[in-house]
């Protein structure tokens, strides 16, 4: 049953006639836009560009210590010299890092210095020599002190097989 109400917008639409050529054009446009939309979603929003950049990373480790002069040491110990635990109580250690690059490089972060002590049986202990230290730029350096008396105590506490 139909009510007696009239809606002018609906009545205006009922009176419209669509030209026969408009329907194929509308369908072709819808298909074209659907294809473009599919193509847009199928491609990444960003495309990586490969560019060869040469760089060189270098790290240098050094240590030094002082001990009374004797048959083994002349008093000064440097990088490459053995550190005999029963003759040396502590050593100052440092590590330096450098990045050389043909492209601009912005680096920042934190670095720590940790000594790893171990033996051939697989026993390993890590000893922090310097806590996290911030760096910013293409070079960084960190220093710490290796307490060899502490290392002796760690070794003495380790069960022997």
- Element string (H = helix, E = strand): HHEEEEEEH
The shape is rod-shaped
Helix content bin: 10-25%
Please tally the helical runs, counting DSSP H or I stretches of 4 or more residues.
Answer: 3
Number of strands: 6
Q: What is the rounded distance between the termini?
A: 101 Å
How does the major sheet shape up? 4 strands, antiparallel
Oligomer: single chain
- Given the helix and strand composition, which structural class is it? alpha+beta
List its salient traits.
rod-shaped, 3 helices, alpha+beta, 24% helix, 161 residues, two-stranded antiparallel ribbon
Polypeptide structure, described:
The chain is of the alpha+beta class. The chain has a domain at 55-157. The chain has three helices and six strands, in the order ααββββββα. The protein has helices at residues 8-14, 22-42, 148-157, and strands spanning 55-66, 76-78, 90-101, 108-118, 124-136, 139-147. Strands 2-1-3-6 form a four-stranded antiparallel beta sheet. A two-stranded antiparallel ribbon has the order 4-5. A hairpin with a 5-residue loop joins strand 4 and strand 5. The radius of gyration is 38 Å and the shape is rod-shaped. The mean pLDDT is 84.
Quick synopsis:
The chain has 161 residues and is an alpha+beta fold. The protein is 24% helix and 37% strand. The protein has a four-stranded antiparallel sheet.
